Automatic annotation (TrEMBL):
Coiled coil (UniProt feature): 155-186
Gene transcribed to yield this protein: ruvC
Function: The RuvA-RuvB-RuvC complex processes Holliday junction (HJ) DNA during genetic recombination and DNA repair. Endonuclease that resolves HJ intermediates. Cleaves cruciform DNA by making single-stranded nicks across the HJ at symmetrical positions within the homologous arms, yielding a 5'-phosphate and a 3'-hydroxyl group; requires a central core of homology in the junction. The consensus cleavage sequence is 5'-(A/T)TT(C/G)-3'. Cleavage occurs on the 3'-side of the TT dinucleotide at the point of strand exchange.
Cofactor note (record): Binds 2 Mg(2+) ion per subunit.
Superkingdom classification of source: Bacteria
Annotated binding of Mg(2+) 2, by residue: 68
Protein name: Crossover junction endodeoxyribonuclease RuvC
Family (UniProt): Belongs to the RuvC family.
GO process terms (BP): DNA recombination; DNA repair
Active site: 7, 68, 141
UniProt KW keywords: Coiled coil, Cytoplasm, DNA damage, DNA recombination, DNA repair, DNA-binding, Endonuclease, Hydrolase, Magnesium, Metal-binding, Nuclease
GO molecular function list: crossover junction DNA endonuclease activity; DNA binding; magnesium ion binding
Localisation: Cytoplasm
Length: 189
C-alpha cells in the first residue's frame, strides 16, 4: 500500500510517501516540507500547499492520503491554519478519488512509539529506526509526515476489519428487523 502522509501546517507542511508491505514492513519513498511565507496572503499560501500536494499525488500515485487530524491546540489561529492546510490537501485527494484518512496525534504517536504521549524527539527517533534511515528526517514536520504514513500502513488492516464487522452487524440488524416485522404481520393476520 502506498500512503501519502501529511503533517498539515501553513508555515511548514510535511509531506511524505511510504510503501507498506507484508506485516509491518514499510519503506520511505520520499519526504519534504512545503514552506509558505507568513506575509503571503492566506489564499496564496493555501494554493501553494494544494499545488505541492497535487504534484506529489501526480508523481507518486498514493493509494490513500493520511492527514493529521487537528485535535486541539491552544492557539486558535494556528489550529485554523492547520485545519485549512489539511482541508486543501484532502480536497486535492478527493478530486483524484484517493481515499483520505485522518489520524489524531496520539494515534500516530502510539502506532510509532507505543505511547500516545511521546514527544517529537521520540517520534523522530522511532521513524528513523523503523524506516532504517541513515539520519533523522528534519525538520520535525518531515518526521511527523513519515510517522503519519507509517501509522496508516499499520492501522489500515484494523480499520478495514472494523468497517467489515460494522457492515456485517448492520446487515444482521436489518435482517432481524425484517423477520420481526414479518412475524408481527403474521400475528396480526
Amino acid at each position: 500500500m502506498r500512503v501519502m502522509g501529511v503533517d498539515p501546517g501553513l508555515t511548514r507542511c510535511g509531506i511524505s510517501m511510504v510503501e507498506g508491505g507484508a506485516g509491518r514492513t514499510v519503506r520511505a519513498i520520499a519526504v519534504d516540507v512545503v514552506r509558505t511565507p507568513p506575509e503571503l496572503d492566506l489564499a496564496q499560501r493555501l494554493l501553494r500547499i494544494a499545488d505541492a500536494a497535487e504534484d506529489w499525488m501526480r508523481a507518486h500515485r498514493p493509494e490513500v492520503v493520511a492527514i493529521e487530524r487537528v485535535f486541539a491546540q491552544h492557539n486558535v489561529r494556528t489550529a485554523m491554519g492547520t485545519a485549512q492546510a489539511g482541508g486543501v490537501i484532502a480536497l486535492a485527494a478527493a478530486r483524484r478519488d484517493i481515499p483520505v484518512m485522518f489520524h489524531t496525534p496520539s494515534e500516530v504517536k502510539a502506532a510509532v512509539t507505543g505511547h500516545g504521549g511521546a514527544d517529537k524527539k521520540q517520534v523522530t527517533a522511532m521513524v528513523t529506526r523503523i524506516l532504517g534511515l541513515a539520519e533523522p528526517p528534519k525538520p520535525a514536520d518531515a518526521a511527523d509526515a513519515l510517522a503519519l504514513a507509517i501509522c496508516h500502513c499499520w492501522r489500515a488492516p484494523l480499520i478495514e476489519r472494523m468497517a467489515a464487522a460494522e457492515a456485517q452487524a448492520e446487515r444482521a440488524r436489518r435482517q432481524y428487523t425484517q423477520r420481526l416485522e414479518q412475524q408481527r404481520k403474521a400475528v396480526r393476520g
